[in-house]
Amino acid sequence: MAALIALTPATGPATAHGRPRPAPDPQPTIVLVHGAFADSSGWADVADRLADRGYPVLAFSNPLRGPDHDAASLRQFLDTITGPVVLVGHSYGGAVITNAATGDPDVKALVYVAAYAPAEGENVVAMNALGGGHTDVTDHLVLRPFPGAAEGDADAFIDPAWFHRLFAQDLPSDTARFMAASQRPGALAALFTPSAAPAWADIPSWYVVAKKDRIIPPEAERAMAARAGAQTIEVNSSHVVMMSHPAPVANLIIKAAQS
């Protein structure tokens, strides 16, 4: 019977005295959530670094329809994963993980990467004003209709002529040009939808401040990180810090996963 126990996946190898060692805790699954004007490809370098360290990695395709809808979609996605999870959100993806993880015992850590971390009742527009910062992105949006949109709603894109200088000024211009052409829009209403109770009130959080961010003011990022009690690093980066500086981003995610 001892031999059978030693071979059971739920236990480790037998000790010298024939007693099985407890199996090590499973590595958490890292779930990466992109924001508006982007897609999951922005996580490629970070995902490779995490996978090289042995972490299961999944990139969630954010619907970008608004915090309520997107958080519900992410919750259903998380229900398909067995074991602990570390949720990572970039930009608007931070608002989605903040809402989706509330009350989920499997989410052990939240990592915000130049991301929104809303308080209850707060919306994106209000968060941009935290700390006295300012963003010009809302002055350079192109709006296009989509089926089923409520009155006054539309898909919002960053004007391609402004994409490089606002979203990704530290990436090569040809990279940013294609990102602008292939960007996924977000529903305009998402800017004004109030957030629900924040998961960061109960789940430990980490935060990457992008010091040269022109989408979310760095002052606002610092304010959100501070009120969440997040362990914080700052990187001299544009908004797409996970693309221009993947190493410190991946290292912070690993730190959260090991906590």
How is this structure best summarized?
With 259 residues, this protein is of the alpha/beta class. It has helices spanning 2-7, 44-52, 67-78, 93-100, 124-128, 160-167, 173-182, 218-228, 241-244, 246-257, and strands spanning 11-14, 20-22, 29-33, 57-60, 85-91, 107-115, 141-144, 155-158, 186-187, 205-210, 231-235.
What does this structure look like?
By secondary structure, this protein is α/β, with parallel strands linked by helices. It has ten helices and eleven strands. The strands form three sheets. A six-stranded parallel sheet has the order 4-3-5-6-10-11, sandwiched between helices. It has a three-stranded antiparallel sheet with strand order 7-8-9. Strands 1-2 form a two-stranded antiparallel sheet. Helix 8 links the parallel strand 10 (205-210) and strand 11. Helix 6 (160-167) crosses helix 7 (173-182). The two termini are 35 Å apart. Residues 1-16 have low confidence and may be disordered.
**Average predicted local confidence, pLDDT:** 92
Given helix and strand content, the structural type is alpha/beta
- What's the Cα radius of gyration? 20 Å
Q: Overall 3D geometry?
A: globular
Span from first to last CA?
35 Å
Q: Beta-sheet strand percentage?
A: 15-25%
Task: Provide tags for this entry.
single chain; 20% strand
Blueprint of the fold:
Blueprint: H1 2-7, E1 11-14, E2 20-22, E3 29-33, H2 44-52, E4 57-60, H3 67-78, E5 85-91, H4 93-100, E6 107-115, H5 124-128, E7 141-144, E8 155-158, H6 160-167, H7 173-182, E9 186-187, E10 205-210, H8 218-228, E11 231-235, H9 241-244, H10 246-257
Parallel strand pairs: 3-4, 3-5, 5-6, 6-10, 10-11
Antiparallel strand pairs: 1-2, 7-8, 8-9
Helix pairs in contact: 2-10, 3-4, 6-7
